[in-house]
Design goal:
alpha+beta; Cathepsin B, Chain A; 4 helices; about 25% strand
Length: about 140
Amino acid sequence: MLQTTVGRHGNCYQACVASILEVPIDEVPDQALGRTPEEYVHILRGWLAPRGLSLIAATLGPYTPEELLPELWHAGYWIAGIATNSRDLDHAVVMRGNTVVWDPHPTPHNWEPYVANPHINGIAMFVPLDPAQTFASAGVATTS
């Protein structure tokens, strides 16, 4: 799923959510609804709850993927906020393990230097609300 808006108010995070959950981007709450990243995560959690999911998100880093204990991430796909040349602008990509597997930007060559060697400032992972529920039954992609 490609993001539909770019720039400072782009919706790359929204596109990553749509890609992992395999839903149209317009079904995911608009990224512009959140005035802050934390507020958007709160909005997403409300949207995910009826689907049996929640989101764990954290700001950290910058770290390289190898520094984030990649064995922790092999269960499925996760979202990374990667640093760009603008100190206050991150770009969201889909990761599996320590590898970028999807860049939602419509012209990904613009982000190539950052995607090829990402410095991760934030992470987000989907988790089932019911521990007995599997990711697959919750609609989260787990295979490539």
